[in-house]
Amino acid sequence: MAEDNLNTAAGCRFALGSKSGADTEALYKGDSYVDVGEIEDLGEFGDTFSSVTFTSLRDGRVRKYKGTADAGDLTLTVGLDNGDLGQAALKTAHKDRSRGDYNIKVTLNDGDPDAVPAVLPTTFYMRGKVMNNTVAPGAADNVVRRNVTIGINSEILEILPAPAAA
After folding, report:
1. Could you tell me if 102 and 17 are in contact, meaning their C-beta atoms sit under 8 angstroms apart?
2. How many C-alpha atoms does 115 have within 13 Å on its Cβ side?
3. Any domain includes 148
4. Would you say the C-alpha torsion 117, 118, 121, 123 has a positive or negative sign?
5. What is residue 58's DSSP assignment?
6. Does 5 map to a domain?
7. Which residue range(s) make up the domain with 141?
8. pLDDT of the chain, 166 residues: tens digit per residue
9. For 101, what's the count of Cα atoms within 13 Å in the CB-facing half-sphere?
10. Residues 6+ apart with CB under 8 A from 97
11. Domain annotation covers residue 143
């Protein structure tokens, strides 16, 4: 029987860094990040390629090629907590209209901190801008939420689970 390597999203984290313009693992890891609290949904992210087509007259066949890559938009849903430092950082980044992208770190729940040596979880690094920051009070029995959209402007760097450095 195969080992079950699946995990739930519970325990996943999102953190916002500086505008250092990191593009390597070392530069991303060297940044300071603030975790965003009370995340309900981390959304999705990853490259989608535009479709470029060519139709040959000879065989009447449409050929498809990969065009430009778009890493998409990451939409966070959080329980509104105005005392949370991470949510405050997102609000500040949303108001920032200057050039430059913020470093972003998404950490999954697939590490094993009890292993010897500890196994670090899968971590994704990317850069983007906070494009949307809306409050969603909802109905009477809802928790007031904040919806935040990050426009991703870089390649997504995926660091797979690995033993922690000694």
Report:
1. yes
2. 14
3. yes
4. negative
5. T
6. no
7. 13-163
8. 556 778 888 889 999 999 988 999 999 999 999 999 999 999 999 999 999 999 999 999 999 999 999 999 999 999 999 999 999 999 999 999 998 999 999 999 988 877 888 888 999 999 999 999 999 999 999 999 999 999 999 999 999 987 777 6
9. 18
10. none
11. yes
Give the rounded distance of the alpha carbon of 146 from its chain centre: 16
CA 84, chain centre distance (Å):
19
For residue 149, give the CATH number of its domain: 4.10.410
Q: Distance (Å, rounded) from C-alpha 108 to C-alpha 71? A: 18
Written as six digits, the tokens of 154 are 């870089």
Least Cα distance to 149 among 93, 107, 99, 108 occurs for: 93
Assess if residue 97 is contained within a domain.
yes
Closest to 111 in 3D by CA, of 98, 122, 101, 100: 122
Amino acid code (one letter) for 18: S
Burial-class residue 121 by CB neighbours within 10 Å (0-12, 13-18, 19+).
Answer: buried
Residue 29 has what DSSP assignment? H
pTM, two decimals, is 0.89
DSSP codes of every residue in 64-105: EEEEEEE--EEEEEEE--TT-HHHHHHHHHHH--SS--EEEE
Counting the structural domains of the chain, the total is 1
